[in-house]
Amino acid sequence: MPQPERRYVITFGCPDRTGIVARISSFLAEHGGWIIEAAYHTDPTTNWFFTRQEVRADSLPFGVAELRERFGRIARELGANANWRVTDTGERRRVVLLVSKEGHCLYDLLGRVASHELDVDVSAVIGNHSDLAGITRAHGIPFHHVPFPANDPEGRQAAFAQLRQLVDVHRPHAVVLARFMQILPTELCADWAGRALNIHHSFLPSFVGARPYHQAHGRGVKLVGATCHYVTAELDQGPIIEQDVIRVDHTDSIPDMVRKGRDIEKVVLARGLRWHLEDRVLVHGNQTVIF
Amino acid sequence: MPQPERRYVITFGCPDRTGIVARISSFLAEHGGWIIEAAYHTDPTTNWFFTRQEVRADSLPFGVAELRERFGRIARELGANANWRVTDTGERRRVVLLVSKEGHCLYDLLGRVASHELDVDVSAVIGNHSDLAGITRAHGIPFHHVPFPANDPEGRQAAFAQLRQLVDVHRPHAVVLARFMQILPTELCADWAGRALNIHHSFLPSFVGARPYHQAHGRGVKLVGATCHYVTAELDQGPIIEQDVIRVDHTDSIPDMVRKGRDIEKVVLARGLRWHLEDRVLVHGNQTVIF
Amino acid sequence: MPQPERRYVITFGCPDRTGIVARISSFLAEHGGWIIEAAYHTDPTTNWFFTRQEVRADSLPFGVAELRERFGRIARELGANANWRVTDTGERRRVVLLVSKEGHCLYDLLGRVASHELDVDVSAVIGNHSDLAGITRAHGIPFHHVPFPANDPEGRQAAFAQLRQLVDVHRPHAVVLARFMQILPTELCADWAGRALNIHHSFLPSFVGARPYHQAHGRGVKLVGATCHYVTAELDQGPIIEQDVIRVDHTDSIPDMVRKGRDIEKVVLARGLRWHLEDRVLVHGNQTVIF
Amino acid sequence: MPQPERRYVITFGCPDRTGIVARISSFLAEHGGWIIEAAYHTDPTTNWFFTRQEVRADSLPFGVAELRERFGRIARELGANANWRVTDTGERRRVVLLVSKEGHCLYDLLGRVASHELDVDVSAVIGNHSDLAGITRAHGIPFHHVPFPANDPEGRQAAFAQLRQLVDVHRPHAVVLARFMQILPTELCADWAGRALNIHHSFLPSFVGARPYHQAHGRGVKLVGATCHYVTAELDQGPIIEQDVIRVDHTDSIPDMVRKGRDIEKVVLARGLRWHLEDRVLVHGNQTVIF
């Protein structure tokens, strides 16, 4: 596939008022900025303005550092506080994947990376079991096994410390819990806020917690789903990035629901991760704007 | 549309064992029964067998009463207890609709009836408000206004007594809560068990109770849905007949979600009602088999 | 439902170049224009820029006529030629519906209008059969019966002349072929270009022309669909506004497919019509941008 | 995952008449056959009866060979001619995959096999390019590179002969064209009839032949799809096993449509292959019954 040209991506949010678009677009136009893609949204409930702009890097007379500095002044002027970012698609995205025994999301993501559909570096895969070491290494990616002992708070604390170290060394743009079966401690949730993505195997807020397909079967629902969301300290309550569902019926046993649901988990996680890495997800409170 | 020929519909459930299909199909074959449609299911969890058979009425040498008597003997022999029915498509289905102010489900059902897509008699429409009297009567259907006074337990009890009378006089095959905003008393739930259908404007079990679209908006979900279920004493907990969803995004305000959700409510209720009236829904515990 | 405040809607297209957004948004900002909703798109294949802006009417110091004049200058400057419009949501939309015998789309649209979901005036319904006169008049809308004689070219020509007159007197914003079974003459297609919407009962470009459900059944497809498109002189080839599908299987006879398909026809037409009336559909060549 | 118990699968079709179900189910009941799953269908257009039965192997007093012989007598008696089969789930399914350069379907199928979701033997992968040799061999599966020279009829004939040999040596239950970009010669279509499955990257019958996403983009459709079908001599005209679609809009370039479509291709092919290998697909004329 041909590489798309290098772009700078601006994401921005502030209280709405007249003239914001004019201010931002005039700034870009002044410097010859060629906008590849632009999206705007105003949330009427909170009166909050959001935008995302993709600008061709070679259309501007300066680099990303100076763009960041200059745009930062406008952001301050408009009252955006910390709600803005300028990123550079020329910087390759780094991802760390956390897994357990179930491999479907891992196989799917590795396949997308290998076929250049998802053009990122998987810096490492870390598993609390070693079942998925083989396929990971077959893709030329380091695999680390970090066991999480049950009923051993100290041992678990040490494991999380090791996990954090193995992750943080890569300064990843995304930490993906690709059916990782451990609940992150509050502290890690905070440190990785806005970068840790989970795939939950239900259509949240239905069936929070363990064994959602069993819960779904018990309730007799006619669709099962999956949810990709940012990880927060409260289990399965973080801002939702993407969801989808698939139809089931009375002929579907729990293993059938698990199997059908996996196809949804895979695409929902892949979409959510792509949008996150392309800076398309703006979080506001517990909601997301997806540009 | 040409009328389909008259059929007898057998629905049946019993503990699974070898030879049930042979017993039932041999009985029908002996008498020349021409099976139009047959479906079988065994639930491996509860080891329960289900079947539904449609037989051409004119292929049998006897009428529905004798079929019921003869089949009843087989049902007893196979241990079905009360879990079987024989119905006659020659008996027109009667439906009573309960409504409030929101008309989209009523308009939809009346349109389906008027265009003979849903070939039933709407015996009456009963509203706790009179907003929908006009369109109901324009379709030649009686409308009854039964107000439900707020904060007046006795008045409400009287209203429910009147409602029951207005419904029961028609001995309806289905009592449809087509966005009826009153919670039925336990006693009515019991008396109408298996015949009272509700449309709830969320993808249950998410967002039980009041203002589900508001709840959905607050949680930031990416799909909203609707659920058609049998009414039981526990609110929004009855066996689910049908569900569906529609995509929403950050540009959708609550009124947008309400509007989009209505399209799902309408089709989910229409499908659920059709299946119920065609004796396609077999309830087992809190689950349904849809044949 | 509370009325949304009055807005002016600008739609605009021109060859892409740097600074268009800045030009338009600065113009609006200068006059205090409060943008409720804004969308932009650039088609990289044709290098064509599109935008749609909703501005609060009361935020501007002048009315729609002056906005049109002032914005027109900018449009000329940017080379938009005729590819721009300024409309006023304060002007109620008028719609004429053309029908035949099948009523599902008509019932659906009338229900949406009656429940204020679709807040428009249905100026008239015109049928080549009179089957749907009753329901139309029950909604207080004039119905005209214009028979189209088969195998009588002159009679048909006269009928089309009468049809045109009955439509044009209302200067409608949309002429909706709501399962109207007559093919419009080229001349009418030209005169109503961009305002005549058809609902075709297949997922185009599959199954162009007559009896698409029969064609779909013959091919053994696993989904059937519907397409809302602008009418052009070439049958079923106009720019597509909206499409959707529903699953069918081997148990579905042709009448079952017809019935299931109707639910899709109704929502696809209702969505397409809403977007058209809200000036959300920008046509470019044979493609549409839906803002 | 626990292995399901061994079952015999009977598929059967014949002209409909009274008593077929009784005949087959009585035969099974006589010998104590425990039916795990049973499905029946009658096509009213062609008056053809279809059934599929799964029987626990250990419930019958004889093996698959004797079941085949005994059931064969009943099949002859009922006029099924060649339209019946008895298969044994104890015989592991063998699959050969044909690929080209695009790996998404191959990655997906290998992931499903490796995670035991699709519990089959991939006997070989054969590519007309060698791009996918690495991932294939990483899964421990033989890869054969058979180049197909352009504009060299004799060379191509030789290549097809080699392909046939490499496939036939495995006597596969399925030959899967997993985005194999060569059109099979008529003779191979005939020899592999009912066993060769193709995934076409459009919602057939739309966009037959080359570059369907380009065709779809040109037509401005709002959904793109994929179709899994049996290969027949007429290109993209074989009986359809499964189809699905995904929504696209004006922001999707052709590469975006290709990317989104791949997710549909993968699941549609995986579902179609599973159903085929479980003997759930009964072909009748150009239509399929999926049990």
Question: Nutshell version of this structure?
Answer:
Chain A has helices at 20-30, 64-77, 104-114, 133-138, 153-168, 186-191, 212-219, 254-277, and strands at 7-15, 35-43, 48-56, 84-88, 94-99, 121-127, 143-145, 174-177, 196-200, 223-230, 240-247, 281-284, 287-290.
pLDDT averaged residue by residue of chain A? 96
* Total of helices of chain A: 8
The spatial strand order of the largest sheet of chain A comes to 7-6-5-8-9-10-11
What would you say the CATH architecture of the largest domain in chain A is?
A: 3-Layer(aba) Sandwich
Report strand % of chain A: 25-35%
- For the record, give the distance between the C-alpha atoms at the N and C termini of chain A, rounded to a whole number: 23 Å
What helical percentage do the residues of chain A reach? 25-40%
Q: Main β-sheet of chain A: number of strands, strand sense, barrel status?
A: 7 strands, mixed
Indicate the CATH topology of the largest domain in chain A: Rossmann fold
Structural class of chain A: alpha/beta
Shape of chain A: globular
Oligomeric organization of the protein chains? homotetramer
Largest interchain contact: A-B, 31 and 31 residues
CATH classification, class level of the largest domain in chain A: Alpha Beta
Return the domain count of chain A: 2
Low-confidence stretches of chain A: none
If you compute it from the alpha carbons, what radius of gyration of chain A comes out, rounded to the nearest whole angstrom? 21 Å
What is the number of beta strands of chain A? 13
Instruction: Give me the strand/helix succession of chain A.
Output: EHEEHEEHEHEHEHEHEEHEE
